[in-house]
Amino acid sequence: MTGKVVLVATPIGNLGDLSPRAVEVLAAADVIACEDTRHTRKLLTAAGISPHRLVALHEHNEREQAERLVARAAAGESIAVVSDAGTPAISDPGERLVDVAVREGVVVEVVPGPSAAIAALVVSGLPAARFCFEGFLPRKGRDRADRLAAVAAEERTTVLFESPHRVGDTLADLVEVCGPTRRVALARELTKLYEEVWRGPLAEAVDWVDGRAVRGEFVIVVGGAERVAAGEADVDDALALRLAAGVDTKTAVAEVAAELRVPKRQVYAAALRLTR
Ligand code: SAM
Fold first, then answer.
1. How far is the CA of 86 from the centre of ligand 1 (A)?
2. Do 183 and 175 form a contact (C-beta atoms < 8 A)?
3. pTM of the predicted model as reported, rounded to 2 decimal places
4. Per-residue confidence at 1, pLDDT binned at 50, 70, 90?
């Protein structure tokens, strides 16, 4: 018998979102690796599955547990992996286990299903064709400032997770870097009783959160930055910097065209003008 690791998505609130295939795979698994055994026991019991094969897999033991679980899969067992809610390995344990399984040549499968990131994106009303998932921002320091700056410059829609007591601070920081009018959606308690999606400009989102005792789980979906077309002066400045630094014309033209997203021939014409 061939063993395998199966990542199984579970509901982010509404138990009705546990798919029939998820139930089938969880019921048939030799082991179910989960973040919190009490939490998963409740889910399994509600789904009519015997909860006796649970082992804990969380951020503090994933390193050793991954080796053990993959060894069991290599020996022929079926290892199902769930997190407390949503899709494992998305800001949740599972990534390291998959990494070890892939390295050991063990089959990895997925039972797709709920994920707060995708659910929030699709209800946000913001462009969803291309998006960027940032998970939780670092809490402080240079790392946080760098990631906030990256979100501000990002032209695609960005999806962020945040804990309820930090959502106000994060929105205030986003106003600082993205400006007050950037569009945002706050998706709260998705699939649950008090599900709510607020949409509007960032500055008003701060007021909305400030004005109420917000509870529950939040996803922040930030609209992308407007693309600003580079003008002739921007092209000249970027080129002049490189040429003065001794970069050859061909390389300078290629770099500036890529950086400012302008056609190479336009940058080449500017280079001719500057070097004449
Ligand atoms: N792996 C999970 C997934 O795929 O949905 C995400 C786990 S992450 C530790 C938890 C974060 O997901 C929360 O802080 C919140 O940002 C978001 N989240 C989870 N459930 C949610 C819900 N029902 N409504 C809104 N956001 C939710």
1. 7
2. no
3. 0.86
4. low
